[in-house]
Amino acid sequence: MQFFKVHGLGNDFILVDLVKQEWPGGENLSESARRLCHRQFGIGADGLVLLHPSPRADVFMQVINSDGSEAEMCGNAIRCVAKYLYERGGIKKEVMHIETRAGVMVPRLVLENGRVAAVRVDMGIPRLERQDIPMIGPPGSVIKEPLVLEGQTFHITAVSMGNPHCVLFVPDVEQVDLYGLGPKLEKHPLFPRKTNVEFVQVLNRSEVRVRVWERGAGPTLACGTGACATVVAGVLNNYTDREVKVHLPGGTLLIEWKEDNHLYMTGPAEEIFCGQIPCS
């Protein structure tokens, strides 16, 4: 079975096109994702991305995290998928429609000499109601709300980009105990489906620095939906404008929250290598 190793700003994936080939029998997808994504005993990746036929879009993108859980959506993965479809998947469209568990997303390719230099994705409208995150508590939005964890109070803003995000603004992201706080916030009882966590340092109104603890994957070098959630939280807390460069450990994404209430994410996608997965 053929696979492609791809990444968006270091957030890396094993991409398998199941439009062109069948997934072999045997272990289930969760087990396969855990095995294949293992950094020492597998190919190594933050997640497994499977492409399926879709009756309402160019393709359906399924994302399974390295721990075997399924994600509704992934911003870095969808840029990689769009690049793959154009350059290798036989879909020569500059504007694509990709179905995800969070709905149909619309990537637009930025082409240079016939190659994909970057991808700008319409990430849709952010959801701010507590039940849409989802998050336990009374109706309404969650903006700078206190959350107590082991006797320490954090002020969080919650955003759904089709998947849940908990955003915290801090003076210096390098001083954050990412490995200590990340998993505890991810699995906090307030979030029944767990949550992604973004620690954000505001540099100015048009630039932020972010470290991410990703639900189901742990620390990652970038998170596209997390970058979008960060900008929404920045605007809601009056820390940033609506067009922001989000600096992540793996690189920078441009996020725009436009007047139509949609978020647009622009960033690169890269293919690292391709290979064969033994089917027995």
Automatic annotation (TrEMBL):
Pathway: Amino-acid biosynthesis; L-lysine biosynthesis via DAP pathway; DL-2,6-diaminopimelate from LL-2,6-diaminopimelate: step 1/1. SUPFAM superfamilies: Diaminopimelate epimerase-like. InterPro entries: DAP_epimerase_AS, DAP_epimerase_DapF. Belongs to the diaminopimelate epimerase family. Keywords: Amino-acid biosynthesis, Cytoplasm, Isomerase, Lysine biosynthesis. This is Diaminopimelate epimerase. The keyword Isomerase applies. The active site is at C74, C223. One of its GO terms (molecular function) is diaminopimelate epimerase activity. It is found in: Cytoplasm. Homodimer. The gene is dapF. Substrate binds at N11, N65, G75, N76, N163, N196, E214, R215, G224, T225. The record marks H165, E214 as: Could be important to modulate the pK values of the two catalytic cysteine residues. Its EC number is 5.1.1.7. Catalyzes the stereoinversion of LL-2,6-diaminopimelate (L,L-DAP) to meso-diaminopimelate (meso-DAP), a precursor of L-lysine and an essential component of the bacterial peptidoglycan. It catalyses: (2S,6S)-2,6-diaminopimelate = meso-2,6-diaminopimelate. It is an enzyme of class 5 (isomerase). One of its GO terms (cellular component) is cytosol. One of its GO terms (biological process) is lysine biosynthetic process via diaminopimelate.
